[in-house]
Design a protein that fits this description.
Layout (H helix, E strand, L loop, with lengths): L6 E4 L5 H10 L4 E4 L4 H8 L3 E2 L3 H7 L2 E4 L4 H9 L4 H4 L5 E4 L5 H13 L3 E4 L2 E2 L1 H7 L2 E6 L5 H8 L3 E8 L3 H29 L4 H9 L6 H4 L23 H17 L5 H18 L7 H6 L5
Parallel strand pairs: 1-2, 1-4, 2-3, 4-5, 5-6, 8-9
Antiparallel strand pairs: 7-8
Helix pairs in contact: 1-7, 4-6, 9-12, 9-13, 12-13
The chain binds nicotinamide-adenine-dinucleotide.
The site of nicotinamide-adenine-dinucleotide has 28 residues, from helix 4, helix 7 and helix 12.
Length: 301
């Protein structure tokens, strides 16, 4: 077992909280920071060192994981006035698990390299349930020689840790996955809504879809229709889970990447518009499976 020197963790939200907790469970002393002080409180009770800025984290730990909402937050945390790179130690390993623009990951990797540190992108798939259970999938981009060092930490939080290639390729894999997820969630919601209006019982319809060719993760693991499954956001007024704003953000990243590579993504574009409309119509903080409620056009929020 490698030495358990402190590991920094920045961004203790829906995902970061259970991920950092899993590091603690595996015996790693953690040094935490979140811009929202409440998020750090429970880590203090777990014996973590709570700091005042990302730079403070970098002073106290030479392995740091970040789990932030989007590209501007990651840029602020790494290269801002009180950012990690202000005080990073030479040889530090910086792992960003946020979903951000791959070109921003590349910029941050260059900036880290200039300070003698190594930056890897390692976005995740699996959601809050998988973060709690420690069985996330990590898609890792960066220098291959550093992959094993990153894997040592990531396996405390995930069951699949996949090396994708140079820095930014983890984000590329993540963006493709989430574009497909959005399309399949909208498709599931559309089909379920149509079936219900045709008089089918939603549970029965879900059962049939899940034994037929329409089956997908959105239908069998994360069904968007209230009452079909337990323990999913649709069973809890679409609270928790993966926010509609974050899905709209990921679809925006897919659009930028598609434009840059001249790749046709007609359904990805449509999905982006739908999730942006949802954000504008009051669904922003709900789980992305609330697209079912949006398509129903009858429930009040
Ligand atoms: N929620 C999911 O199911 C899920 C699944 C896979 C990937 N992701 C991705 O993981 C990332 C995090 O998602 P989340 O759901 O945990 O988001 P979240 O909004 O719940 O958490 C983000 C945390 O970062 C903190 N933060 C923001 N700016 C900061 C700053 N400048 N310095 C320090 N802390 C700062 C916030 O206070 C918050 O606690 C996103 O990029 C998201 O797309 C989320």
């Amino acid at each position: 077992m490698a030495s358990k020197t402190p590991v920094g963790f920045i961004g203790l939200g829906n995902m970061g909280n259970p991920m950092a907790r899993n590091l603690v469970k595996h015996g790693y002393p953690v040094v935490v920071y979140d811009v929202f002080p409440e998020a750090c409180k429970e880590f203090q009770d777990l014996g973590a060192q709570v700091t005042e800025s990302p730079a403070d984290v970098a002073e106290r730990a030479d392995r740091i994981i970040t789990m932030l909402p989007s590209s501007p937050h990651a840029q602020e945390v790494y290269t801002g006035g009180n950012g990690i790179l202000k005080k990073v130690k030479k040889g530090s390993l910086l792992i960003d698990s946020s979903t951000i623009d791959p070109s921003v990951s590349k910029e941050l990797a260059k900036a880290a390299e200039n300070m003698g540190a190594v930056f890897m992108d390692a976005p995740v798939s699996g959601g809050v349930g998988a973060a709690l259970a420690g069985n996330l999938t990590f898609m890792v981009g960066g220098v291959e020689q550093e992959f094993n060092a990153a894997k040592e930490l990531l396996t405390c939080m995930g069951s699949n840790v996949v090396y994708c290639g140079e820095v930014g390729t983890g984000q590329a894999a993540k963006i493709c996955n989430n574009m497909l997820l959005a399309i399949s969630m909208i498709g599931t919601a559309e089909a379920m809504n149509l079936g219900i209006r045709l008089g089918l019982d939603p549970k029965l319809l879900a059962k049939i879809l899940n034994m037929s060719s329409g089956r997908c993760w959105s239908s069998d693991t994360y069904n968007p229709v209230p009452g079909v499954m337990e323990g999913v956001p649709s069973a809890n007024n679409y609270q928790g889970g993966f926010g509609t704003t974050l899905m709209a953000k990921d679809l925006g990243l897919a659009q930028i990447s598609a434009t840059n590579t001249k790749t046709p993504v007609p359904l990805g574009s449509q999905a982006h518009q739908i999730y942006r409309m949802m954000c504008a119509k009051g669904y922003a903080v709900k789980d992305f499976s609330a697209v079912f409620q949006f398509l129903r056009e009858e429930e009040s929020l």
